[in-house]
Amino acid sequence: MIGNHHQQSDPRRSERERRYKAPAVSQVNPGDDMTPDYTNILGMIFSMCGLMMRLKWCAWVALYCSCISFANSKVNDDTKQILSSFMLSISAVVMSYLQNPQPMTPPWSSVFG
C-alpha cells in the first residue's frame, strides 16, 4: 500500500527518461589551455625588445610574462623553451640595468604626471 501511493505521487515520467551519451570528442580538447604558450611568446618578444631597444619596462613585462608561463605550464610541456624564455627575460632585465643603472621611467609616466 505504501509503495503504490509512492508510485502515484512520483512526478517523474519514465517514458521521458533518456540514457546519457557522452559527446563526441572534437579535435580541439576544451581542457587545453593555451595561456602558457601565449605568455611564453609574449615574454620572448618583450625580452627581445628590452634587449635590443634598451627598454626597461619591456624587460620587466617579459619577466612577468615568463613567470605566468612558468606558473601555468603543465608537467608535459616543453621545459627547455619555458626555461630559456625565463632566462632570456632575466638577462633582459639585468642587461638593461647594467647599461643604464638609473631608475626606470615608464613612457606613460609623462601622461599621468
The oligomerization state is single chain
Number of strands: 0
Q: What are the secondary-structure elements, in order, as H or E?
A: HHHHH
**Percent strand:** under 5%
* Morphology call: elongated
**What is Rg?**
27 Å
**Largest sheet report:** none
How far do the termini sit from each other? 83 Å
Number of helices: 5
Arithmetic mean pLDDT: 83
Residue share in helix: 55-70%
Structural class: mainly alpha
- Outline the low-pLDDT stretches: none
Describe this structure in words.
Its main location: membrane. Residues 7-20 have a biased composition (Basic and acidic residues). Keywords: Membrane, Transmembrane, Transmembrane helix. The chain crosses the membrane at residues 41-70, 82-99. Residues 1-31 are annotated as: Disordered. There is one protein chain. The protein has 113 residues and is mainly α. The longest helix is centred in the last third of the chain and has 21 residues, at 79-99. The N and C termini lie far apart (83 Å). The chain has a domain at 35-73 and 85-96. The model has no long low-confidence stretch (mean pLDDT 83). The protein is 61% helix and 0% strand. α2 runs antiparallel to α3 and α3 (56-72) runs antiparallel to α4. The radius of gyration is 27 Å and the shape is elongated. The protein is built from 5 helices and no strands. It has helices at 2-9, 35-53, 56-72, 79-99, 109-112.
